[in-house]
């Protein structure tokens, strides 16, 4: 495992690898933004939210794969970006070596030995066809292609989905090795919150196309509390301060900002939430009887 030191919070003068300002994208009933997002150089930014929250749309806007309806996106030159998308974009009949041969001319710093070393590390055979790879193997191939040209910025959309636990740990360790160079940056989209706990420096939480939190990973859980109380412990005023409120016949539970804890009575128990608690509830309206039905006033979401 690499020995990457724990970074301090990015300073205001830290240069940006990615800057998104006022990004808006409408697609059917789904509305993304207005969205502001900054990825500082030298940091791993975890971009987290439920499926359909807007993560993939934002990433595609960063890469120029969708045209925003409003706003600006600034990223490095494409030659300096490594990309791992949720779905492979390779020709199904290509072999592993043919995929490398097709992409090599696009990158001035392509390193064939690095690609061979990565595919060997991942257990990929040179003559395997893309269409014969499992989802996990496809992800490994995309990672090898992304790292073989020594990018400054890695953008990964759900890279650990489909990987078994051993392969997930190997990928995270490989990304740690990548981040030993302080000029490198990573945008890491995921709905698997354990990836954030082991790897992300800062976290961006998105729900229904709106960013609800941006900050250091540890600040995410310190900024919120899980409140649990009886049926009579919740007033109309305090209910308005909750996220993901769930009522049951015996009481309620909800996520609240730590700055709002004084609004709740002494009968309400406050506990430290997990990252899962925050991501699952932040920005969500109330539900009843633990059924987790969607708030009908929320916009429909699509990736």
Structure description:
This protein is α/β, with parallel strands linked by helices. It folds into 2 domains: 16-216, P-loop containing nucleotide triphosphate hydrolases (Rossmann fold, 3-Layer(aba) Sandwich); 220-281. The chain has helices at residues 55-62, 96-103, 112-121, 135-147, 165-178, 193-199, 217-222, 236-239, 275-281; strands at 16-27, 30-40, 44-48, 70-74, 81-84, 153-157, 185-190, 202-207, 210-216, 224-229, 242-248, 251-257, 269-271, 287-288. The strands form 3 sheets. The protein has a 6-stranded mixed β-sheet with strand order 5-6-7-3-8-9, sandwiched between helices. Helix 3 (112-121) runs antiparallel to helix 4. The two termini are 33 Å apart. The model is unreliable at 287-303 (pLDDT under 50).
The biggest beta sheet is recorded as: 6 strands, mixed
Secondary structural class: alpha/beta
Q: What's the number of helices?
A: 9
Domain count: 2
Percentage of residues in strands? 25-35%
Instruction: Please report the first level of CATH classification, the CATH class of the largest domain.
Output: Alpha Beta
**Termini distance?**
33 Å
- CATH homolog superfamily of the largest domain: P-loop containing nucleotide triphosphate hydrolases
Organism: Xylanimonas ulmi
Protein name: ABC-2 type transport system ATP-binding protein
Domain ABC transporter: 12-233
Pfam families: ABC_tran
């Amino acid at each position: 495992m690499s020995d990457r030191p724990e970074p301090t919070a990015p300073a205001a003068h830290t240069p940006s690898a990615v800057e998104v300002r006022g990004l808006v994208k409408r697609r059917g009933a789904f509305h993304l933004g207005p969205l502001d997002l900054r990825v500082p150089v030298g940091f791993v930014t975890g971009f987290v939210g439920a499926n359909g929250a807007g993560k993939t749309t934002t990433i595609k806007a960063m890469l120029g794969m969708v045209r925003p309806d409003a706003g600006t996106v600034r990223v490095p030159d494409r030659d300096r970006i490594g990309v791992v998308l949720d779905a492979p974009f390779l020709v199904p009949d290509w072999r592993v070596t043919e995929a490398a041969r097709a992409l090599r001319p696009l990158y001035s710093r392509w390193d064939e030995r690095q690609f061979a070393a990565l595919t060997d590390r991942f257990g990929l055979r040179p003559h395997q066809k893309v269409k014969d790879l499992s989802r996990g193997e496809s992800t490994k191939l995309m990672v090898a292609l992304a790292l073989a040209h020594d990018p400054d910025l890695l953008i990964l959309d759900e890279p650990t989905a489909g990987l078994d636990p051993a392969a997930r740990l190997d990928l995270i360790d490989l990304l740690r090795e990548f981040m030993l160079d302080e000029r490198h940056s990573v945008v890491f989209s995921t709905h698997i919150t354990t990836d954030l706990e082991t790897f992300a420096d800062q976290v961006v939480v998105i729900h229904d196309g709106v960013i609800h939190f941006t900050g250091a990973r540890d600040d995410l859980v310190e900024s919120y509390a899980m409140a649990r109380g009886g049926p009579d412990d919740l007033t109309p005023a305090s209910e308005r301060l909750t996220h993901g409120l769930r009522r049951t016949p015996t009481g309620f539970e909800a996520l609240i900002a730590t700055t709002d804890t004084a609004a709740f009575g002494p009968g309400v128990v406050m506990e430290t939430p997990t990252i899962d608690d925050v991501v699952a509830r932040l920005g969500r309206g109330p539900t009843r009887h633990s059924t987790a039905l969607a708030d009908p006033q929320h916009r429909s979401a699509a990736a």
